[in-house]
Structures are given as C-alpha cells and as structure tokens.
Amino acid sequence: xxxxxxxxxxxxxxxxxxxxxxxxxxxxxxxxxxxxxxxxxxxxxxxxxxxxxxxxxxxxxxxxxxxxxxxxxxxxxxxxxxxxxxxxxxxxxxxxxxxxxxxxxxxxxxxxxxxxxxxxxxxxxxxxxxxxxxxxxxxxxxxxxxxxxxxxxxxxxxxxxxxxxxxxxxxxxxxxxxxxxxxxxxxxxxxxxxxxxxxxxxxxxxxxxxxxxxxxxxxxxxxxxxxxxxxxxxxxxxxxxxxxxxxxxxxxxxxxxxxxxxxxxxxxxxxxxxxxxxxxxxxxxxxxxxxxxxxxxxxxxxxxxxxxxxxxxxxxxxxxxxxxxxxxxxxxxxxxxxxxxxxxxx
Length: 346
What we know:
65% of the residues lie in helices and 3% in strands.
C-alpha cells in the first residue's frame, strides 16, 4: 500500500514501503503473553515477536501506519527537507541520501506517538484501532445484516455504472480478509472455523459470474433469447462469465441504468446471501475454510476448494445458480421481447 501510494505521489516508492514496514514494527509492542504449561500461569515475555499482530489482527494498523508514514514522508520531501547531492553523484546514491532526513523524521514521529500511547490506558496503537475501528467493523462485517447492506450498496453503485465492488471493498475488504484469515488459522489447527461472512463467502457463493451472479443470466440468454443481440451477447459473454468477469453483460446488455434488469441484478445477490448464510449457519454447508481461492476460479471448482474440499460447497453453488437463473428468467424474457420488437422495427 505504501509503495503504491509513493508511486502515486511520485516520491521514492521503495523508501515509502520500507518506512511503512519499519514504522509498523516500531509501533508494535514486542510482547507476548505466554502460559506456563505446568502452572497455567500467564507471564509477559518481552522482546518476542507477536505473531498474531503480524497477521489479520494487525492488518488495520498496518494500513493506517502505511498511510500516515507515506503522507508524512511525501510532505517532508515536497518541502525539500532533504540532503541534496551534486548532479555528478549517481541517481541511486542521490535517492538513498534524499530519503535519510525524511526517514529519520517519520521514524521519530511514530516513536514519539508510540511513547505517548503507551502512557495511556490503551497501551498500544493496536489496542486503539482494535477497540475503536476493527472490532465494531468486524461485528458489522461478520453479520447477516452487514453482508446484505454491503451487497445492496455494491449493486446500487453498479446500477449507476460505478464499480461497486471496488468502492465497498475498499472499506470492507480488510474486515472480510481478517475474518477469512481467522478461518484459515482455525482450519489449519483442525478446529471449527468461526466465521460465515468472509471475502470468500462473496467471491465464491454470491458473485458467481461476477457482481449480480450474472453467469445464470448469460446461460439464460443462451437458452431462451430470441433477439439476435442477446444471442450474440450470450455467446460472447459465456467464456468470461465462467471466470467471473461480467463487464460485457453489465454494459453490453446493458444492466446499468436498465430499470427492468436492475431489479433482479440487486435482488439475486441479496437472496443468495441470505440462503448461503443460513445454509452455513445451520451446518448444511461447510463454512469458508479461509483458503485464498482466486475470484476468477470457475464455480464448482471454487466451491470445492473454498469449503475445504467439501462437496456441500459445490452443492450450494448449484442451488444458488438455480435460484439466480429462475429469478432472472422472467425479467430476461421481458427484455428479450423488447429487443426482438426493436429488431423488427416495431
């Protein structure tokens, strides 16, 4: 994140990334609570790397530190508070010296911030972020209502031609990725996975064919469309749709700004979210295992991999596909009828 932000600001991206890593480690308390097996007494071990904070628990802090350190680094560089070298010095050496003063200032600021926080009731920036931001967002993101609200927002934005998954994901992805990582840790330990709503929940069981679960709509076009436009669109869209790419459908059909197709486009993901949630909560289908299955993986394969090798994950995808297909079908027929009339010049 810091590297890309540095590139965007046209400052030394490598220095931005390195500074964000250094300041994150600086802001992290190297203390681990260890339970003595014989006495069950908990002791605080100083100087130990807190593995939990290097994973999902530290994700929010890492993002915040990356943002703060890069913004501060950019500000200092743009104010020309740097060591300037003669033009005869090689560029690599010049960049290294130019980063020294800004880097020292950034590290000092974060160090002072850490000392201030350590003398408060919070103890560390990780505790502040956890209590104020991460825990409330995790509760919302892990709930059915939070998932429904997110899904509706994604598709309402898409209805206006805005990439809803990118906008909503920018806020909620850290939460869902954190929940996914919790599942991974539990799954690898042989324990029951704790979370139903994760990043994989949406990618594998809701957005089949892309936002709106439009793979079912594409298959509907192939089977039932009578207009030449929709027949051609169906043939062109099926291959990308299998890999969950659907811009051809959303903009080519179009679904965007289409009052007929927007109804199922928003309704289908909501229905699939509710069905998938309760299927997993009631134990009929295995929860996401935490495996980082690429979102472009075709359905059936993705359901099997994402559920930890359980057939129930595949069955749920088939059920969701059927639900999406039959919800889309009447609206597809209405739109197809209009396109046929247009082609006939009526």
